[in-house]
Amino acid sequence: MSAHEVSALRADAQRNRERLLDVAVQAFNAEGPDVTLDSIAKGAHVGIGTLYRHFPTRESLVEAVYRSELARVCDRVGPLVAALPPDEALRAWMDGFIEYMATKRQMADALRVVIASGRNPYSESRDRLLNAIGTLLRAGTETGLVRSDVEPGDVLAGLSGISLVAGEPGQRDLAHRLLDLLMDGLRRHPIGSAPPG
């Protein structure tokens, strides 16, 4: 087998894995922890054997789905900072965090099964989220758009609180208003500046 063929097989396997994760997160959100692995495989248009090659147990699939969603929200930082002014990047990232927390809440029963099996899907969560928030805050302070006295942990606590009180799909307007308030508190406002006009 040529190197090109091996590379194509690896790329195909990675696409299968990503499809399985995408279908699984939707299935766990819609149907809960009892969704069948066979239905996830069918939804991803792969055989059950392919699913088991990537995820030997239900628990390994649930944990991979959760970690994939965590990576998705954390990996948005770079593209957002590159595309938007830092304060707007931070605010846009906050929307993604609320979506991530909603997915985590919808997967709660499935994640409890993973924890009961002795695994800890949350082992990297806090550090990764703090690093993401820290990167966004540094970009904002370097340009003078965000206050320099803000700790990433405080922002994470504020976002977590908002997700608790306004994390349901029907509460998106409330969540956006609360995020705007939080963001306004994070922005650096010139002291003693004259009002416009």
List the helices and strands and how they pair.
Blueprint: H1 3-31, H2 37-43, H3 48-54, H4 58-75, H5 77-83, H6 86-106, H7 108-116, H8 125-142, H9 152-166, H10 172-186
Helix pairs in contact: 1-4, 4-6, 4-7, 4-8, 5-6, 6-8, 6-9, 6-10, 8-9, 9-10
How is this structure best described in words?
The chain is mainly alpha-helical. Helices cover 74% and strands 0% of the residues. It has 10 helices and no strands. Helix 1 (3-31) crosses helix 4, helix 4 runs parallel beside helix 8 (125-142) and helix 8 crosses helix 9. The longest helix has 29 residues, at 3-31. The radius of gyration is 20 Å and the shape is elongated.
What is the number of beta strands?
0
Please state the average pLDDT score. 88
Shape: elongated
Helix share, percent? over 70%
Query: Helix count, per DSSP?
Result: 10
Structural class: mainly alpha
Low-confidence stretches: none
> What radius of gyration results from the CA coordinates?
20 Å
Order of helices and strands: HHHHHHHHHH
State the distance separating the first and last CA atoms.
72 Å
Binned strand content: under 5%
What's the oligomerization state?
single chain
- Major beta sheet summary: none
